[in-house]
């Protein structure tokens, strides 16, 4: 496919603009006659649209009269000023008109993509985003039975095992093709539009994250693990052996490490994509065009973004299906070890995601809690000395606990405390995993100010209530 050139590839050839004006403008530049005048003598009629030189230049009507423009030209300038046609004097384009222009430009680009294909990006962008890399037309076989000529004589249990293995391999290939939709269609289209100044507010790095890393992971997994199983069966005609998958799945955590980063960011990614689709008409138009493209198979952007998380959690189910249909003890032992390795990696991902959510919740709570006034300063010097100790940093590690254990916000709620003998004080409590904060909520805001020293958790006694509404709530 021939790449489309950028509008800024280089200067135009000499005479290009003039030739276009001559072809489409309807006006030719006046050619000077032999005597230097711009029209022949004798009052030859002018061509339509051509003005006389004396109507365009300054002249002296009489020796005592000041210089001025021709009355005819004055009327024309007055008309141009009235209608905003004079160069540089019309009203500036409104933001709405600029937006309409951007929409029209986007629609024109998308129409060009539909007619001639998405332009080819530079090699460095293609390698970075895995655009067009490792493309394959599809599996040569539609069923495992095409690989095993003697499947008619196989036992029913062995046939079910081969069916489960084929589901593992064939769904892997289908999934990688869906990943390629995000790079070959969505990312390629977005990057091309950004090269002409469109959708600059939608960074591809935020929208697609490390999808190219996932593609590299699965390409390696296919070439080193799943692909050789197919090739061996094609050559021998014997049923696929689950033992051939053992080395690949036992190193699952190392191979699929980029999934940790993707699963940590997928929630923010989907929120960003949803916000852009709801509030950015240009992005909405682009996504709709992509969803109707033949490469996408009418898959929606949200469905594509959640696919990696769904796929990585599906591997234990696929392996268990093979395990249940494998009567051989050696195969069952190997498959059990594979399932344990994959589940261990998934537990690691879940722990990282949970920790990230806890840190987000803690950061949100810290934003709501203001500084802690230890003492009432008596002077500016005292206030300056106290200021570093008035900041309550809830994101610091807890004392006496390993650093990987982060502070969590367990519960919060409003209570009424006794103040003196008869006084009462309405306060708002934050119960963290290591301390209890007593705060006072500020009016008309969601912020709170610490009014008591933090109470460490080992000095507290917490009791669960039958009616949760009478105490703190999670």
Q: Roughly what fraction of the amino acids lie in strands?
A: 5-15%
- Count of DSSP helices? 15
Enumerate the spans where pLDDT stays under 50 for 5 or more consecutive residues.
Answer: 1-30, 32-89
Shape: flat
Question: Structural class, judged by helices and strands?
Answer: alpha+beta
Give the CATH architecture of the largest domain. Answer: Up-down Bundle
Alpha carbon gyration radius? 36 Å
The pLDDT mean sits at: 82
Q: What is the fold named in CATH at topology level of the largest domain?
A: Dbl Homology Domain, Chain A
Q: Major beta sheet, specifics?
A: 5 strands, antiparallel
Helix content: 40-55%
Please count the beta strands (DSSP E, at least 2 residues each).
5
Q: How many structurally independent domains?
A: 2
CATH C-level label of the largest domain = Mainly Alpha
The termini sit apart by 58 Å
Determine the CATH superfamily of the largest domain. Answer: Dbl homology (DH) domain
Q: What sequence of helices (H) and strands (E) makes up the elements? A: HHHHHHHHHHHHHHHEEEEE
Region (Disordered): 1-70
GO molecular function: GTPase activator activity; guanyl-nucleotide exchange factor activity
Protein name: DH domain-containing protein
Domain DH: 160-352
């Amino acid at each position: 496919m021939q790449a489309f050139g950028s509008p800024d590839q280089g200067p135009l050839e000499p005479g290009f603009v003039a030739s276009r004006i001559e072809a489409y403008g309807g006006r030719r530049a006046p050619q000077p006659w032999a005597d230097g005048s711009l029209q022949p003598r004798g009052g030859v009629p002018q061509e339509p649209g051509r003005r006389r030189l004396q109507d365009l230049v300054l002249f002296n009507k009489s020796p005592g009269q000041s210089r001025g423009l021709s009355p005819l030209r004055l009327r024309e300038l007055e008309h141009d000023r009235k209608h905003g046609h004079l160069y540089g004097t019309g009203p500036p384009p409104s933001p709405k008109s600029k937006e309409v222009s951007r929409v029209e430009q986007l629609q024109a680009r998308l129409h060009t993509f539909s007619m001639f294909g998405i332009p080819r990006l530079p090699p460095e962008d293609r390698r970075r985003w895995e655009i067009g890399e490792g493309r394959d037309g599809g599996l040569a076989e539609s069923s495992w039975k095409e690989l095993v000529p003697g499947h008619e004589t196989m036992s029913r249990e062995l046939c079910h095992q081969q069916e489960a293995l084929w589901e593992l391999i064939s769904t892997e290939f289908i999934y990688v093709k869906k990943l390629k939709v995000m790079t070959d269609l969505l990312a390629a289209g977005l990057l091309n539009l950004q090269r002409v100044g469109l959708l600059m507010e939608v960074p591809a790095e935020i929208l697609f994250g490390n999808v190219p890393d996932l593609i590299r992971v699965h390409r390696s997994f296919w070439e080193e693990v799943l692909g050789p199983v197919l090739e061996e069966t094609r050559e021998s005609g014997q049923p696929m052996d689950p033992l051939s998958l053992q080395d690949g799945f036992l190193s699952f955590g190392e191979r699929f490490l980029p999934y940790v980063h993707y699963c940590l960011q997928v929630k923010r990614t989907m929120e960003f994509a949803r916000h852009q689709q709801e509030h950015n008409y240009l992005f909405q138009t682009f996504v709709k065009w992509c969803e109707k493209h033949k490469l996408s198979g009418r898959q929606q952007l949200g469905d594509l973004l959640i696919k990696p998380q769904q796929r990585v959690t599906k591997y234990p189910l696929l392996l268990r299906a093979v395990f249940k249909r494998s009567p051989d003890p050696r195969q069952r032992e190997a498959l059990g070890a594979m399932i344990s390795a994959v589940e261990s990696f998934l537990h690691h991902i879940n722990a990282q995601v949970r920790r990230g959510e806890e840190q987000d919740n803690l950061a949100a709570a810290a934003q709501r809690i203001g500084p802690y006034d230890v003492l009432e300063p008596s002077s500016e010097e005292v206030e300056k000395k106290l200021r570093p100790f008035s900041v309550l940093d809830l994101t610091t590690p807890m004392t006496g606990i390993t650093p990987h254990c982060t502070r969590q916000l367990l519960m919060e709620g409003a209570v009424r405390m006794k103040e003196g003998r008869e006084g009462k004080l309405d306060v708002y409590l934050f119960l963290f995993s290591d301390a209890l904060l007593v705060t006072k909520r500020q009016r008309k805001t969601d912020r709170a100010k610490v009014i008591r020293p933090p109470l460490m958790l080992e000095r507290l006694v917490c009791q669960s209530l039958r009616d949760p509404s009478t105490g703190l709530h999670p």
